[in-house]
Amino acid sequence: MGQMIPDLNPRATMEFKTNGVPKMPKPQYDPKFTDKVIAATGPHAHPRLAQIMPSLIRHLHDFAREVNLTVAEWSAAVDLINECGQMSNEQRNETQLLCDIVGLESLVDEITSKMLATSTAETPSAILGPFYRSDAPFLPNGSSIVQNLDPSIEWYDQAIADSAFLTGQVLAAGTGAPIQGAVVDVWHTAPNGLYEQQDSSQPEMNFRGRFTTDEDGRYSLYALRPVPYPIPEDGPAGRFLKMLDRHPHRPGHIHFIVSAPGYRPLTTQLYDDRDKYINNDAVFAVKDELVVTFQPREGDSNAKWSLEYDFILGRE
Ligand SMILES: [Fe+2]
Q1: Last residue of a domain, one of 67, 91, 115
Q2: Which GO BP terms apply (predicted)?
Q3: What is the CA(131)–ligand 1 centre distance, in A?
Q4: 296 C-alpha to ligand 1 centroid (Å)
């Protein structure tokens, strides 16, 4: 595909706005058109669609009228979405990435978690992201998700400098009772910003593990302080970011899925407050409650830093 979006519709810039003053009146579009499209929905439509489509149609039509959307611009948007679909497969979801860079996945995630929440004490959720693997190994508490760390690895020194001990409890919202037997599924990138499945130099399941909480609801593991990484830029979503004059970086984060029988599984991320992108996430997923401060750790040859963070789960 060549140029993704045609030049701005000159009518929008020249005819209607000169020094902010309309030169000629905006065309009068058919005032009955949107109602006619909404009314086409039949009595046996899927109930949820019947509920939400009038709003979607109204917003879409209002948007098109507001910006004087041309056929060429609409056609470029259709091409963009088509290209995202054609690029998507088991390993990559380019359409989801397109939604991410306009904040839609984060917004839908927030709506969903707040709709289902039974207590304001629950740990906020954050997006799953495209690099989760559901079959990470179960590891004993106190063990490390860092595999085969060797001085010959390019990022060895950074891995040592960022070595971190992570611990905390999984607690029930409302009562604050510790949840024994909760599973804490954790994953993050190497210091080169790549997840193991993106990087053939890393061992299988590197920086991934599942930990089961003890009788105090406590988990503990060794990992690394996370580093920022760019979302994939080699597809249409990346091109779109560039057209918006935006950077592709996500602030360093550690992913978690915390689950326990009888409780709603929590998918979330913790963000390291040292990160320069902490207030400028390319996919808008950072929430204040999920920003953490690692503390220097003394007397542990396996970690230079430590972090204590409790996850609070809501009832199913
Ligand atoms: Fe991530």
Answers
A1: 91
A2: catechol-containing compound metabolic process
A3: 7
A4: 24
